[in-house]
Amino acid sequence: MSNETEALIAEYFATGTLAGLPRDHWIDGQWHAAAGGDAMETFDPGLGRAFAAFASGCEQDVELAVNAADRAMRGPWSKGTPAERSRILLRAAEGIRANAERLAVIETLDNGKTLSEAQSDVRSAARLFEYYAGAADKLHGETMALGPDYVSQTMLEPVGVTAHVIPWNYPFSTAARGLAPALAAGCTAVLKPAEQTPLSALLLAQILHQAGLPAGVCNVVTGTGAKVGAPLVAHPKVRHVTFTGSVQTGSAVMQAAARNITSVTLELGGKSPMVVLADCDLDATIEDALWAIYSNAGQICSAGSRLVIERSIHAEFVERLAARANQLTLGHGLKNPNIGAISSLQQLEKISGYVEDARARGIKVAAGGTRLTDPASGSGWFFAPTLLDNLRPMDRLVQEEIFGPVLAVQVADSAEHALELANGTPFGLAAGIYTRDITKALRLARDIDAGQVYINEYYAGGVETPFGGNKLSGFGREKGLEGLRSYCRVKAVTARI
Ligand code: NAI
Ligand code: MG
């Protein structure tokens, strides 16, 4: 561990906070106190206690931020050269890397995840800015062949002011995932981080400012979904909303945007299957299943939260996976255990509720199943890595997103049966396929209803790979060149000559 990280950790455990944390909104290139003067606290889930206060915004703050973003649409960012945008976004990537240690420590404290997970999130955020910096000056239109008497071309224009409503499970990298392509396309933005994890979006805005982003291009308003998120997505000057979160809130966001005919990208829940066939590489698949569900304490929209497994290997697989789950260490994220905390008490109670219900109904709990505290401090919000075995297709543990370290096991009698089980939920975000038979793998990949399919490695892909869902998991794609589409509108210009 570096000296800088060690010093930050020592400071936190000695004082219960860190010096210099942001606490106001970031609007029009400067810190802005909440219009109503209200504040909220953010919690360190690893200790279950508040460690910082931040601005609790309202409609007035949203109005200021959207107006700043709207003015900035007429300024040098949107009207200037793509090459200059590219240079500034590249400097932002460097700025993220230069601040990586402090960013990762703050993200760990705010969210509860392990330090190594937070470090990886920060790296992927830097990579997103680097990737879209490279794309900013390569957004081309086309020419259409209408014969010798016409010149017809399309131009890509920035869609306008964009709103980004961010969840608490990947606060920094999700902010970067929407913001980097929006900025590359020449849009301006207002970000609303989740009230559980407000800090890293504020730090990102500051880094962008230092990289040379003009005032008003990126604004951050913190506070609740009701008081900040709702007026933001309903604002008539917002032309695109990028939302990641629950299905219920996603639907409300879409309805609010519909009143202004504002476009939306919705990245919602999932109940993604890992389809494991009898001919898979058993050792590798068990290890992969472990991290598909228990990374980030299971709080991942695309987590492999269902194991759909062929009957002939089911018993051995579950026994060995349970043994591995029982070995995993839990603790405060800054101590870098295998699994960190659950991000909020509310989420912990939701997870506990599902597992209590399973127990009450006599479902076999093959591993975990209990709420825990950090063994070192006796506090914090933790849940043991859990395996629920042999579930029926219509069980709510199969049909509903739990968003915690809880794996639901379903037994299949054949590859065809596995496909039916895999597609048997209202979600369609991701799916894993495990087999040594490439034909079976590609047939399943063809037939599974999901936005992304991973063969023999869960979460395979990079910032280059488009990501998004089908069915209740949402629509629109983020990451990759696809991720730029939502932020560009096409203008066709045709001349008779
Ligand atoms: P949520 O969807 O309510 O919150 C996500 C974001 O939306 C937050 O920034 C929140 O402040 C904002 N928000 C809330 N109401 C809003 C509104 N009316 N208009 C605009 N923005 C609004 O999710 P919540 O309550 O934090 O978690 C509930 C469940 O949602 C979780 O248990 C999990 O199942 C799912 N979830 C899924 C995520 C994903 O990555 N797909 C991320 C977070 C939660
Ligand atoms: Mg927090």
TrEMBL record:
Alphabetical UniProt keywords: Oxidoreductase
Domain Aldehyde dehydrogenase span(s) in chain numbering: 31-493
Pfam families associated with the record: Aldedh
Catalytic site: E267
GO MF, one example: oxidoreductase activity, acting on the aldehyde or oxo group of donors, NAD or NADP as acceptor
Family annotation (SUPFAM superfamilies): ALDH-like
UniProt cross-references to PROSITE patterns, sorted A to Z: ALDEHYDE_DEHYDR_CYS, ALDEHYDE_DEHYDR_GLU
Family: Belongs to the aldehyde dehydrogenase family.
Protein name: Aldehyde dehydrogenase family protein
Organism of this sequence: Pseudomonas putida
